Amino acid sequence: MTLSSTLDSPVRYLKGVGPARERLLARLEITTVRDLIFTFPRRYEDRRELTSLKDLVPGKVTFVLARVVDFQSRKARSRKMTISRVVITDGSTMAEVVWFNVRGLEKIMVPGRKLALYGKIERKYGRLQIQSPDFEIIEEDEEELQEMGKIVPVYPSTAGIYQKWLRRTIRSSLSLHLQDVREILPLWVMEKHSFPPIRESLMDMHYPSDRQSWSESRTRLAYEEFFLLQTALALRKRSFQEGSGKAPRCGLREEGSSELLSSMLDFELTGAQKKVISQITSDMAGNVPMHRLLQGDVGSGKTVIAVYALLLAVDNGYQGLFMAPTEILAQQHFSRLKGLLSQMGVKSALLTGSMGSAERKNILSEIRTGSIKVVVGTHALFQDDVSYRDVGVVVVDEQHRFGVMQRNALKSKGEAPHMLVMTATPIPRTLTLSVYGDLAVSVMDEMPPGRQPVDTKWIKPANLHRLLNFLRKEVGKGRQIYWVCPLIEDSDAIDSTSLGEREEFLHQAFPDLHIGVLHGQLPQDKKDRQMEEFQKGNVDILLATTIIEVGVDVPNASIMVIDDADRFGLSQLHQLRGRVGRGKHKSYCILLSDPGNPDALERIRTMCTTNDGFRIAEVDLKLRGPGELCGLRQHGVTDFRVADLFRDRELLYLARDDAFKLVEDDPSLGNHEELRSRVFSELGETLHLVETG
Predict the structure, then answer these.
(1) How do residues 201-249 score in pLDDT, each as one tens digit?
(2) Sheet strand arrangement including 480-484
(3) Any bridge partners for residue 433, and if so which?
(4) Domains and CATH numbers, the chain
(5) What is the DSSP string of 80-131?
(6) Which of 313, 322, 375, 478 minimizes the number of CB atoms within 10 Å of its CB?
(7) Using CA atoms, how far apart are residues 319 and 315, in angstroms rounded to an integer?
């Protein structure tokens, strides 16, 4: 190691790393010395008690030292499994070790080689076996022999990185750089929660002396991860309030469009809708830009809220933008909004990337002059050639983080509009505080009157004939069906039903029915035509990919069939289910699946037992983790080395309260330089923080 190395030095400069291992460590998100020191064991092996082979006890997890006597490997009858057997001895007796489908053992298990093995003892065919144990080759150097009587850390690993080498490298890094690790937690936080010092916590995590010290250190480190993120979010929220420029004041006006909207609706607003409208009214009346996240389960009536915010801006002489993630959804929103807006004398337009140049030129001209008051579109709304007269509010539908990330694009046009980000994907509170912690949050947890719950049923492929009989009866009643497949075409890599395969099957099963096909590879005009035919009732079964997951609204569609449902995440299954139950007819979601693992089975059973999107989101968070659930894989935002959003939720709430209090008392973190440095170095770019002061 070079004398000038620091915690932030690349790992390739560590002794024994080099470029090749640097690339392997990067797979573990280890790029600096600090990353290495803060890479913690995924479990520990208790090697304090060495067991003789003659004293092995079935069912017990045991640590043994022995030498290889013989190695054999063979293919199982199915030819899909390789079974490797190793005979070992420690001088007292012999035992057998078995591995399944482990490559390269024949090069390692040579007679006479000494091994350390840690695994569970099983009795098979009258003999004692150690099945699939962790193992290491023992060279009998002094360093390794010292580990034999200790609790040994087992770190996350990847192909090419061995535990023995990783332990030695982390131990060396701690020896050289532990003294360089500085406290980032304020003293009052440390005293308030009785946290141990950071260096002590690091050593306890790598080499715990007992469970209590480990637990206290883990709690402190998990809190620190939360605190670092929440401090960044508190800084960003403050910058919204103070540094975004003056937002347009959009107060309620007598007999304005927003008032007319309420009078023209043919249904009573829910209590949740009224509450959110009140929050938005208050936000938009001020000159601090609104930054609000609106969470509402499928069918809770978020579109009405969006229209209200847009009209509130129009009432005050400003333009409103409505952005959707896909063209098909943007077009559907526009078709809904256009009629309602035109009745109020509000001119609107659709702006998408596939629009013809002549049509686009005319629309851009009217947007620039301000004669078009509401613009609905995709990302095309923020392209360089689009100029607005004066934007009052931007509503973003179903696009995680877009409303925050694209703020700079609008600010570059000299604007500081109000921002409303909507999602129909329920998000657990812990994840909301982590990913959207800088936004005010509104939750609509109440369904409009008349909205029927959807019955969800699980059918195995072996009973497909029963499903076909049921579908025939429903079509006979005049109902329509969605049928979703995970793949467009057959794949050698994935054993799953494709659209092409299912289309042929359905044509044979229902030769008299009209079956449509919709997927992302179709030209836009064909997508539009297929969706239009389904909305008109001219298509009985719409065979589709998850392109129809968000926003498609066909009240007469009462059945959602999901092929290979075990291949979808819970939130996606819930979104797909939300496409039905939007009319007056009894609706069903059919999960066609034969789940092959416990997680898939839990997803299927959860769907069949609840329609509560927030309950589903909690289970999804537990099964998949935060990064997968919200679509972000950003270290420090959803991926923590210690903290767990599911089990550490109370710790997150504590860290959030403390972090926001700190930023309120010290807005520039001028009295907390180490914390400030870490916030901006680790999260500044990801969260678009701008250093001031």
Answers:
(1) 999 999 998 889 999 999 999 999 999 999 999 998 887 777 656 889 9
(2) 455-459, 588-592, 557-563, 480-484, 541-544, 515-518
(3) none
(4) 1-42+155-210 (no CATH), 47-149 (2.40.50.140), 257-444 (3.40.50.300), 455-610 (3.40.50.300), 650-693 (no CATH)
(5) S-EEEEEEEE-SS-EEEEEEES-TTHHHH--TT-EEEEEEEEEEETTEEEEE
(6) 478
(7) 9
User: Which ranges constitute the DSSP H helices of 142-269?
Assistant: 142-147, 163-177, 187-193, 198-206, 211-243, 257-264
Of 240, 580, 184, nearest to 438 by C-alpha is 240
| Start-to-end CA span in the chain (Å) | 36
- Cβ atoms of 68 and 113 within 8 Å: the answer is yes
Bigger pLDDT: 127 vs 651: 651
Q: What whole-number distance in Å separates Cα of residue 242 and Cα of residue 245?
A: 7
User: 319 forms bridges with which residues in the sheet?
Assistant: 391
Secondary structure in 3-state letters for 338-362: HHHHHHCCCCEEEECCCCCHHHHHH
pLDDT at site 403? 47
Compute CA 253 distance to the chain's CA centroid, rounded to the nearest angstrom. Answer: 41
Check if the beta carbon of residue 588 is closer than 8 Å to that of residue 454: yes
Residue 78 has a pLDDT of: 59
- Across the range 580-608, mean pLDDT stands at 90
What would the pLDDT profile of 87-136 be if each residue is shown by its tens digit?
A: 999 988 899 999 988 888 888 899 999 988 888 998 887 778 998 888 88
In 3-state terms, what secondary structure has residue 247? Answer: coil
pLDDT computed for residue 602 by the predictor: 92
- Three-state secondary-structure class, residue 432: helix
**Crossing angle (nearest 10°) for helices 302-315 and 327-343:** 60
The rounded mean pLDDT for the chain is 85
CA dist., res. 235 & res. 638, Å (int): 18
The contacts of residue 503 (CB under 8 Å, 6+ apart) are 515, 517, 543
pLDDT value, residue 303: 84
Compute and round to an integer the Cα radius of gyration of the chain.
30
3-class DSSP state of 431: helix
| Tokens representing residue 176 in the block | 């050289």
How confident is the model at residue 413, as a pLDDT? Answer: 62
Report for 190-204, 271-285, 367-381: range of highest mean pLDDT: 190-204
pLDDT average, residue stretch 346-352: 93
Per-residue pLDDT tens digits for 519-564 = 888 887 888 888 889 989 999 999 998 888 665 678 899 999 999 9
Please compute the mean of the pLDDT values over residues 407-425 and round it to a whole number. 74
Residue of 601, 594, 686 lying closest to 638 (CA atoms): 686
Distant-in-sequence, close-in-space partners of 496: CB < 8 Å, separation ≥ 6: 485, 486, 487, 563, 564, 567
* Cα–Cα nearest to 534, from 547, 521, 654: 547
Determine the Cα–Cα distance for residues 686 and 229; give it in Å rounded to an integer: 11
**Dihedral of CA 202/203/207/209: which sign?**
negative
Who contacts 604 (Cβ-Cβ below 8 Å, separation ≥6)?
A: 458, 565, 566, 591, 593, 595
Distance CA 396, CA 377 (A): 10
- CA distances, 106 to each of 82, 110, 355, 601, 686 (Å): 12, 7, 62, 37, 46
Report the pLDDT value the prediction gives residue 1, as an integer from 0 to 100.
42
Q: What is the pLDDT of residue 551?
A: 56
Positions of E strands within 597-674: none
Identify the pLDDT of residue 621: 79
